[in-house]
Amino acid sequence: MLQLREATIDDLALLQRWDEAPQVVAADPNDDWGWATELLRRPAWRRQLIAELDGRPIGFMEIADPARADDGYWADWLAAHPAYAATPSRAIDIWIGEADALGQGHGTRMLQDALRLSFADADVGAVLLDPLASNTRARALYARLGFVDIGPWRFGDDDCQVMRLSREAFRSPG
């Protein structure tokens, strides 16, 4: 069974190891998450979650309010897209840290759980994702789940493809 729990400072070594895993580097090559600091913070605009399969940590997710985030990651994109910025949203980062857990549907289930958590807030009208433009496999998964390709955007050193799922298009699996 897949379950989510809040990430804590006790996950520091695990997350630092995952940061070096080839599949994580391929999906998120240039971000410095600052784990030692960020795992101690609990800002109201963000949740950091560890996905566990039968009690074994396999992946990580962050669900954030891009308009309230104090790191400014989404600020330029929101300023350039006022029509989208007007809708309260969440942004999700997600990855599988354990290589032997890849390709088994766990990432899909993690994302579905993140979407349910995001849309549980009645004010949230959309969810944003920013996969690398080169990550066609992830983008295809997101499209199957109803995400619409909004267009390219450069976040820092990364060429990404912003994708958006509206509340109306969200299909919560049984």
Automatic annotation (TrEMBL):
The keyword Zinc-finger does not apply. CDD domains: NAT_SF. The keyword S-adenosyl-L-methionine does not apply. GO terms for biological process: response to antibiotic. Keywords: Antibiotic resistance, Transferase. GO terms for molecular function: N-acyltransferase activity. Gene3D superfamilies: 3.40.630.30. Transmembrane segments: none annotated. InterPro entries: Acyl_CoA_acyltransferase, GNAT_dom. It holds the Pfam family Acetyltransf_8. Residues 2-168 form the N-acetyltransferase domain. This is GNAT family N-acetyltransferase. It comes from Luteimonas terrae. The lineage of its organism: Bacteria, Pseudomonadati, Pseudomonadota, Gammaproteobacteria, Lysobacterales.
